[in-house]
Design brief:
With about 200 residues, the protein is α+β, with helices and mostly antiparallel strands. Helix content is about 40%, strand content about 25%. The strands form two sheets. A five-stranded antiparallel sheet has the order 1-4-5-6-7, with no helix packed on it. The protein has a three-stranded antiparallel sheet with strand order 3-2-8, with no helix packed on it. A hairpin with a 2-residue loop joins strand 4 and strand 5 (about 80-90). Helix 4 runs antiparallel to helix 5. The structure holds zinc ion.
């Protein structure tokens, strides 16, 4: 006597024996089933977008930022309370697998295996432009503060009153500096490349 499974005998309306063959194969072809099929191992299949340009170790091809893959997503640890996720995907041009994971400390992704990150170099011309603008803004602010102190607020009590303002200005300046550093970092990261392979 053949073994019988008493479960899962419902045939859904779109079940097509020619296309799906068996009920099992039908279920495995279901998108959500497919995405969640390794959930017991903590793996979910997601759409992963390449965060920067890389070189595949397998076929040595260049893979551009923004190329999308079906990737297995898995939690591999924590950085303080932030989960660290690892993504595993097959190169669309060869059989090589690429593994990347989040790097919460640096708000970045790192390559674990299977690829090399294409080095992005700092565009000095654009950088200088930013520095100049930022520098001018700062100078104007300092000049304004000095102007106010030297003219119209010359007496001691006025100067005293102005002191908190000065420290505010200093705070604002250091905040700008932080903003600038952040902007620089983002620009560096997302600037279209004019670079060559660094091997
Ligand atoms: Zn490849």
């Amino acid at each position: 006597m053949g073994e019988r499974k008493g479960v899962n005998k419902y045939y859904p309306p779109d079940f097509n024996p020619e296309k799906h063959g068996s009920l099992n194969r039908y279920h495995n072809s279901h998108p959500l089933r497919e995405r969640a099929r390794k959930l017991s191992q903590g793996i979910l299949v997601i759409r992963f977008e390449m965060p920067y340009n890389i070189w595949c170790d397998g076929c040595k091809n260049h893979i551009g930022m923004g190329v999308r893959y079906n990737a297995e997503k898995k939690k591999v640890g924590n950085y303080y309370t932030t989960p660290i996720y690892r993504f595993r995907m097959k190169c669309h041009l060869c059989v090589n697998y690429i593994e990347m994971q989040t790097d919460p400390a640096n708000c970045d992704y790192v390559i674990v295996s299977g690829a090399q990150r294409k080095e992005e170099r700092w565009d000095m011309a654009a950088n200088e432009q930013v520095l100049t603008t930022e520098h001018e803004k700062k100078q104007r602010l300092e000049a304004d503060a000095m102007f106010r102190l030297e003219h119209g607020e010359a007496d001691r009590s006025a100067l005293k009153k102005a002191l908190p303002t000065l420290s505010h200005i200093q705070e604002a300046q250091s905040a700008w500096k932080d903003d600038f550093a952040l902007n620089s970092m983002l620009r560096r990261r997302f600037r279209p490349t004019r670079t060559s392979r660094n091997s």
